[in-house]
């Protein structure tokens, strides 16, 4: 049994390189990298299936969109049921919509939406949350990380796919 596979190590080095570049860019721009990383990880979870790129990006953007909509919706609900119940109702309605309409509009409401809305809701507790910036980073940064990965995969050929098994 071979512990290290050459193509897997080479692919891993490229992934590490993308992480380093992302960290330097995000550090220089003083922006969070997590929205791009979440999209990238979802792409890896889907075995780098290029048919999943659009649903991942759309679902992730919808997840952050739900965070952007939350203050307005919760504020409206709070007039009728108070802020705590309003928040709970919004969460229940958002999650219900993801699961109820996921088969109707799967590019928009999907498991990726659920993942990102959950992570983004937690990130709201960080200092200076900025969901609009997160949305931009999610779409542009996530797409760039996926594109970088695909460039490496194409350059490596079949050995790159074997390295991710």
Helix- and strand-based class? mainly alpha
Provide the domain count: 1
> What is the share of helical residues?
over 70%
- How far from one another are the termini? 15 Å
Tally of alpha and pi helices:
7
Largest sheet: none
Strand content: under 5%
Oligomer: single chain
Radius of gyration over alpha carbons? 18 Å
Instruction: Give a count of the beta strands, DSSP E runs of length 2 or more.
Output: 0
| Helix and strand sequence | HHHHHHH
Low-confidence stretches: none
The mean pLDDT is: 93
Envelope shape: elongated
Please explain how this structure is put together.
By secondary structure, this protein is mainly α. The chain has one domain. The chain has seven helices and no strands. The longest helix has 29 residues. The mean pLDDT is 93.
